[in-house]
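Hi V.,

Quick status before I head out on leave. The structure for the redesign project is tokenized and pasted below; the design run finished overnight.
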């Protein structure tokens, strides 16, 4: 009856009302819980043991592992050993030789100081220590369990140093053992740990092998050269593709903020994921913001080698480092982190650009969008009104209306890998021969591009940078402004000026390393220029000026033909000998500019570029490309909302562009009217949907990675703060 009663809800409620009794946990339980925290997995035990060996000044550390560390972890070193009289308390909690008073923490150089690691291991495994100290003929061996010796130390033969054996790890933590048994990757983690340790502590030789295996999986020899060490541990393919790197920041002559030296991979190193080996004051740590900052640089500079290998050793003033964090907490945050990350990021960027200049074109050739994993066309099933759109690859979604009465450009584009130069001479040879022929300052070594990039970096607004990197895109508020959320704030952001600036910056950063968009129908410059000039003054009647326009077009064509080599080499804008535009750069993968803007672009090249001064010249060309590739509203009015009028009635066509484009349709095709407008509407809908897709899926992700927003954008209306969500919530609450 009792059990029945207990299971009724009333009885349960009554039982809950009684407060549970508080009692003191048995010490062994406390210790085991604590131990489980310090030693989370086999690899954490290995880390503690190896750090102890390093603290004991070992020059050789050998690790043997069985069953991913669950059966056996054995670490042998040639360090100073452990005194006989210390053995009884060696594995008690809070026994250490490294720290006596709290203040020592400020200046501590050793890895350990808590006296917790060995103790923890005895609570979750069986620990046996064999050690010998200098000047003694024999050593001692003793086993521990739950912090205490299981027997008196036994004299035994021993080689210099200490060997610690941990057997049956987690034998008393069934759940932990089970999860670990199922995942066999702890040996991999151990190998990874020792590889990292080995390339930092180059004066120590490391080895790591599976129990019974003849071959070691890590085997480093003490050396004075870091590069040699990386070569032995990570292999030639890594070591031969590294560049050395340094960065530092000083307050004044006497004190420093940080010093960093390291190695990072060049464009030949291609891997599936980033390897970042980071030591801060000789402690192996992780720092996600720093890793991300470096990855961003790689993604921008070497799109094909965007997962680098990074080794960095950062030294900070000891008082800036809080060593007293939990031993398992590997993720650090540094004092002055933003500054440090930024400095290191620029150092990497500079290094990569330098190394970029000296490599061959072949290495840079990257296949363009057809092979890319995201094909926007796959996702573009619906236009805003929900009807099906034709599935057209995005790189072909440009107007192909060959019957266009105004004779507009009807090129369609294909992305083709730019292979023609791939087998040719290396880039620097090409460049120097071109430099001799073009009439720019011949001694220029492209510092002008570096200066332009520096200008961008110098003018970067850190607050906006944070917004751009961490905002979420909500949607388009109108034709030009996107609505963004950042923390609890909403912003309107002008996508035209943002995309223009992004494209400009990308042109500078990818300078001379573009993949190509091939125009299937090379377009005659003279015609493009005429179109642009006619569009410039929209008084269509004004045809007596046509002669003048033709002259301008002719002159500009000649000028651009003269500059063709430089335009092609540095900007991938190809103009053939007959004066046809045949190739454009891919500035952002997955994105093709609006080809209707080619005429304006060509005119801008002809009119706005100062070809004499190298820096101004590059800047103007990059700006022209930026303007061309920016995500302007499509020329056809937005059919959603008011713009729909333009597609309903033929006569009051308000948009001059449409008059210009479809002059023959005006009036005389009344019976076709509906059909034509239907097509036009569909076309407009497709263009707008395509643009919105690109804004969300191409522009914003790219901005997050690459854009350095300018200071001016905070005040010129590019970013407008809308309202604080907090206030909005309050308003809702009141309602
Ligand atoms: P901690 O390293 O925080 O001092 P541990 O529990 O890891 O605490 O080690 C306790 C003490 O044991 C150390 O302070 C050190 O004196 C000694 N010890 C541990 N491992 C070794 C070793 N491999 N060689 C010499 N001494 C060691
Ligand atoms: Mg220790």
């Amino acid at each position: 009856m009792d059990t029945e009663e207990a299971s009724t809800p009333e009885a349960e409620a009554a039982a809950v009302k009684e407060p549970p009794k508080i009692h003191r946990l048995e010490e062994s339980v406390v210790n085991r819980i604590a131990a489980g925290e310090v030693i989370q997995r086999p690899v954490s035990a290995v880390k503690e043991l190896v750090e102890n060996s390093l603290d004991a000044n070992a020059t050789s550390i050998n690790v043997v592992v069985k069953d991913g560390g669950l059966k056996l972890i054995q670490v042998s070193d040639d360090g100073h050993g452990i005194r006989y009289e210390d053995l009884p308390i060696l594995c008690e909690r809070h026994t250490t030789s490294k720290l006596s008073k709290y203040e020592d923490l400020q200046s501590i150089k050793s890895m350990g100081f808590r006296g917790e690691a060995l103790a923890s291991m005895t609570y979750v495994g069986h620990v046996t220590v064999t050690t010998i100290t200098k000047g003694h003929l024999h050593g001692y061996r003793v086993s521990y369990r739950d912090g205490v010796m299981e027997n008196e130390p036994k004299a035994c033969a021993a080689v210099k140093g200490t060997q610690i054996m941990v057997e049956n790890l987690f034998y008393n933590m069934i759940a932990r053992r089970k999860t670990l048994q199922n995942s066999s990757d702890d040996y991999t983690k151990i190998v990874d740990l020792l590889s990292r340790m080995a390339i930092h502590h180059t004066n120590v030789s490391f080895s790591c092998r599976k129990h019974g295996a003849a071959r070691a999986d890590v085997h480093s020899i003490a050396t004075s050269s870091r590069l040699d060490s990386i070569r032995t541990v990570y292999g030639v393919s890594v070591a031969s593709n590294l560049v050395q790197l340094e960065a530092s920041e000083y307050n004044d002559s006497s004190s420093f903020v940080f010093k960093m030296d390291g190695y990072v991979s060049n464009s030949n190193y291609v891997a599936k994921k980033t390897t970042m080996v980071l030591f801060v004051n000789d402690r192996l740590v992780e720092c996600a913001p720093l890793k991300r900052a470096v990855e961003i640089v790689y993604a921008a500079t070497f799109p094909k080698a965007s997962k680098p290998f990074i080794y960095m050793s950062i030294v900070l003033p000891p008082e800036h480092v809080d060593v007293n964090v939990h031993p398992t907490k590997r993720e650090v945050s540094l004092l002055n982190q933003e500054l440090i990350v930024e400095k290191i990021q620029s150092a990497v960027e500079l290094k990569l650009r330098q190394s970029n200049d000296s490599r061959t074109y072949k290495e840079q050739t990257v296949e363009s969008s057809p092979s890319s994993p995201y094909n926007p066309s796959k996702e573009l099933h619906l236009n805003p009104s929900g009807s099906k759109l034709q599935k057209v690859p995005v790189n072909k979604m440009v107007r192909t209306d060959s019957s266009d009465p105004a004779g507009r450009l009807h090129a369609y584009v294909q992305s083709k890998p730019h292979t023609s130069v791939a087998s040719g001479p290396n880039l620097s040879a090409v460049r120097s021969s071109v430099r001799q022929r073009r009439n720019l300052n011949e001694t220029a070594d492209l510092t002008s591009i570096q200066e332009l990039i520096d200008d961008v970096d110098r003018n970067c607004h850190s607050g906006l940078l944070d917004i751009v990197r961490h905002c979420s895109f909500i949607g388009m508020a109108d034709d030009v402004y996107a609505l963004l959320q950042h923390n609890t704030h909403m912003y309107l952001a002008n996508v035209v000026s943002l995309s223009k600036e992004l494209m400009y910056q990308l042109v500078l950063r990818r300078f001379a390393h573009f993949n190509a968009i091939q125009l299937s129908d090379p377009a005659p410059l003279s015609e493009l220029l005429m179109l642009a000039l006619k569009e410039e003054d929209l008084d269509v009647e004004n045809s007596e000026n046509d002669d003048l326009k033709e002259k301008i077009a002719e002159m500009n064509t000649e000028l651009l033909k003269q500059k063709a080599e430089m335009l092609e080499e540095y900007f991938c804008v190809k103009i053939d000998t007959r004066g046809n535009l045949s190739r454009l750069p891919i500035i952002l993968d997955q994105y093709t500019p609006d080809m209707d803007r080619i005429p304006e672009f060509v005119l801008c090249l002809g009119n706005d570029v100062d070809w004499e001064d190298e820096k101004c010249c590059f800047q103007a060309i990059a700006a022209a490309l930026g303007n061309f590739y920016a995500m302007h509203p499509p020329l056809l009015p937005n059919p959603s909302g008011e713009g729909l009028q333009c597609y309903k009635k033929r006569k009051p066509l308000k948009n001059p562009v449409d008059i210009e484009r479809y002059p023959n349709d005006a009036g005389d095709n009344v019976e076709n009217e509906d059909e034509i407008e239907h097509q036009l509407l569909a076309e407009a809908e497709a263009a707008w949907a395509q643009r919105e897709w690109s804004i969300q899926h191409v522009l914003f992700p790219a901005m997050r990675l690459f854009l350095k927003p300018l200071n001016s954008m905070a005040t010129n209306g590019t970013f407008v703060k809308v309202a604080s969500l907090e206030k909005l919530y309050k308003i809702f609450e009141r309602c």
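Above is the designed sequence. The pocket of magnesium ion (ligand 2) is lined by residues 48, 51-52, 112, 117 (CB under 6 Å).

G. will cover questions while I'm gone.

Best,
W.
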